[in-house]
Amino acid sequence: MATPSSLKDKVKPKEWDIMGKISLSTLDLSNRNLTELPNELFELTELEALDLTNNKNIDLSNELIKLTSLKLLCLDRCNLDTVPAVVMKLQQLETLILRSNKNITLPDEMCSLVNLTYLDLYSCDLMSVPAAVMKLSQLKGLRLSSNKNIALPDEMCSLVNFTYLELANCGLDTLPSVVLKLLNLQELDLSHNTQISLPEELCRLENIKVLTLFECNLLTVPPAVLNLTQLEELDLCANRGIHLPDEMAGLTNIRVLKLCGVEMVTVPPVVGGLTQLEWLDLSFNPLQTLSAVIGQLTNVKHLMLSNCQLYTLPPEVGRLTQLEQLNLRDNQLQTLPTEVGQLISVNDLKVDGNPLIKPPAEVCRQGIDVIRQYFQELKRSDEKSRNRSVGSKTAVRTYPADPDAPAAAYRCVLRQFDRTNIWVGHTKESHS
User: Fold this and answer.
1) Could you give all domains of the chain from N- to C-terminal order, each with its CATH number?
2) Cys-Cys link to 191, which of 203, 214, 254, 406 (CB 3.0-4.6 A)?
3) Are 225 and 198 in contact (CB under 8 A)?
């Protein structure tokens, strides 16, 4: 029997962010007010992910076991009081999303999910981590965020494959002691715990590479963090007024640093010293200008500077020859330095929301090569003006540089892309 196209055609590749991005062939049946699964579903034997979000009190048929390729099941906001029995029969399942099912219970039979590596229990109003979780021997990642004051039992240390733990917005004032025993932990998210204090023993987590401290009301980078010399990614966004101590220079393995919305008015020298950085997010800070230290970050590939009130960029930005993404959206830039043309690796340049004149936004939107040609034409135009002034034998006064040179350079560059029509400002002119 052929699968009806009305359902089969809805299967699309989708990128899921589950301990990193993964693309799965997904059927999205969310928000359909379904009380049971459609029979046509059970013929989609190659389906990898099923999203049933916000289908209240849905009944999951035993026929679900026919989906032998199913790796991800999302039961977000389904008003479940326990995990449906058929789920325990999906032994190939790798990801189970149960978020926002208030006070849900997890039966011991979940231990049959021998391939389950990620469990999402976000905002389930749990008082403690369910005992069934400790029986998931292959579990690598657990999301417990928005379970206020949740208790983490010592038995969690039996999860020897555990590498990812999310405890955002749990009302924590310190790190649960069992976390310090999860010696294979690589990623830890403590965001939105505004009273949290990190103990010196944090250094026991010698394998931790990613630490997220978004909006934790931190006044400075905790000393315990400065001892995590193996750290590769640190998120300090939304910690307003946070101080970055000189000791941060010891984080010699850090590749990603996120400082979005920390009310930074200038980039401190210690940031310029983190020369191994590949990703730097400084967006939503009242910088107005960017200090020359930015030029020291010669390995940076992604630089986020949107909504920073920037009026100028320093010429040192031209040293960032590894840069691939440059986000300058929503600033006050009227000009870009000529050195921007040296950023030959940039393939994602965003300048929307700036009153750009030199070069015009229309030029910038066509990429670095066109920007470089624009500045070359501008230089040639200026040289011609100077030569005309010097070479004149009859003129009593000399001529200033041509005030229309930027527009002339703009026209010359765009003419190379369209020999018949060019754009001047917002008006199209025809040329034979």
Assistant:
1) 1-143 (3.80.10.10), 373-430 (no CATH)
2) 214
3) yes
